[in-house]
Design goal:
single chain; 408 residues; alpha/beta; Rossmann fold; 2 domains; seven-stranded parallel β-sheet; 14 helices; 41% helix
Length: 408
């Protein structure tokens, strides 16, 4: 039987793409396909759940289907290009690099190059899929054909665990808990969350707190900016919790009274539907893929005025009938999402790839893999032993020009 494997730059714990990859693998294995995950970076807790991406060459075969989850520029782009397998790109969107200027230099580079690298597959992949209609339209705009949508599989098993209340238990009281879940990065506009919360607390409810749950490793500069904003506004009761386990995440949803999202750029935004599942009403900015993900449920806003956002929050939290109506609408949207035939969609897309004509294999230099391995070793040396990397002799054409004087 045809093998269907997955290639992903970052296989992370508690990450939306990581959860999607595992859900797809479960479906594929359930149908009898050999299916493994190959990744460049793996969370330590997932190290036994995936293999380092270069090992894929051992199983690569023209009869295989390889699903490449594309979300950032990486070494996997050229690796994927050189393989003879049938190629499917699953596009999770790339955050515009300008969000990270002055905050994370390396991510600026990766996002910039990622957007350029994506275009290299317009004529090289057999099928291009977005994980939302918003992302499929982005592929169409770049010239990909054929395209389709492989929606995020609504798997909430990571929330069906006994809650660990070690962190969240202290917030289970009579106060109002405003929650947001997501990595602490600029496009999610944590600054706007803090401003809206400040207005809500000052104008409507002094007994409220803001719980911001998400990893901030690598974004310490942005985190410092947020702490400076909190200090400037003199807003108490803002808690930047950091990365949490699934058990801890469940506990935070359990104590939340409202989920507030101010993100400006999302390819799907899984925490929105997680909130639906946990019965937490959502108030969210109507930006990029968020309205499609909400599917007519929750409360959407377009204003940038924190006082107007605070008024929306208060309207939901202060009116029990409105509160229950929002939650009921979200439950209906979640039912629509879960009623979709995800397994049938995936089977249909796989059959489409296998039945269609193969893309012509692009020409690959005879020493492509030797060059790739050498570049990979150099990048690893630069990343892990920078002093050794900079001690290497420069290429012959980069040596300083002779001064014209003889050297005794």
């Amino acid at each position: 039987m045809t093998a269907i494997h997955q290639l992903v730059p970052n296989f992370d714990y508690g990450d939306a793409i990581g959860n999607h990859v595992r859900a797809l693998r479960t479906l594929l294995r359930g149908w009898g396909y050999a299916s493994n995950v190959y990744a460049q970076y793996m969370h330590p807790e997932l190290a036994r759940d995936a293999r380092f991406y270069t090992r894929y060459r051992d199983v690569s075969d023209p009869g295989n289907v390889l699903l490449f989850h594309f979300s950032i520029g990486s070494e996997l782009t050229s690796f994927f290009a050189g393989l003879p397998d049938r190629k499917v790109v699953i596009y999770h969107n790339i955050t515009p690099p300008e969000y990270f200027v002055g905050v994370h230099k390396e991510l600026v580079r990766q996002c910039f190059h990622g957007r350029r690298e994506l275009t290299a597959y317009v004529s090289r992949c057999d099928l291009a899929l977005g994980d939302s209609e918003y992302n499929r339209e982005a592929l169409d705009a770049l010239g990909f054909a054929p395209t389709g949508v492989l929606p995020v599989v609504p798997d909430f098993s990571h929330l069906d665990v006994p809650p660990d209340r070690t962190l969240a238990g202290g917030f289970d009281d009579e106060w109002t808990n405003i929650l947001f879940v997501g990595r602490v990065i600029p496009n999610k506009r944590f600054d706007d969350l803090i401003r809206a919360f400040h207005a809500y607390k000052a104008l409507f409810n002094p007994r409220a707190r803001l719980l911001l749950v998400g990893a901030h490793s690598g974004f310490e500069r942005y985190l410092a900016q947020l702490y400076n904003l909190i200090g400037t506004l003199r807003t108490p009761d803002v808690h930047l919790v950091g990365h949490v386990s699934n058990e801890e995440l469940t506990a935070f949803y359990d104590v939340a009274d409202l989920f507030l999202c101010a993100s400006e750029h999302e390819g799907f935004c899984v925490p929105l539907v997680e909130s639906f599942y946990k019965g937490v009403p959502v108030v969210a900015r109507a930006a990029t893929a968020v309205p499609a993900t909400m599917d007519g449920a929750g409360i959407l806003y377009e204003t940038r005025d924190p006082r107007e956002v605070a008024a929306l929050m208060h309207a939901v939290l202060d009116d029990p009938d409105l509160y229950d109506g929002v939650v009921a609408g979200q439950r209906e949207a979640l039912d629509r999402l879960r009623s979709r035939d995800f397994a049938g969609t995936l089977v249909g897309l796989v059959d489409r790839v296998l039945a269609g004509p193969r893309r012509a294999m692009p020409p690959v230099a005879f020493d492509f893999w030797q060059q790739f391995e050498m570049v990979d070793r150099m990048k690893a040396l630069k990343r892990h032993r920078p002093s050794a990397f900079h001690a290497l002799p420069p290429p012959p054409d980069s040596r300083p020009a002779a001064s014209g004087r003889s050297v005794p």
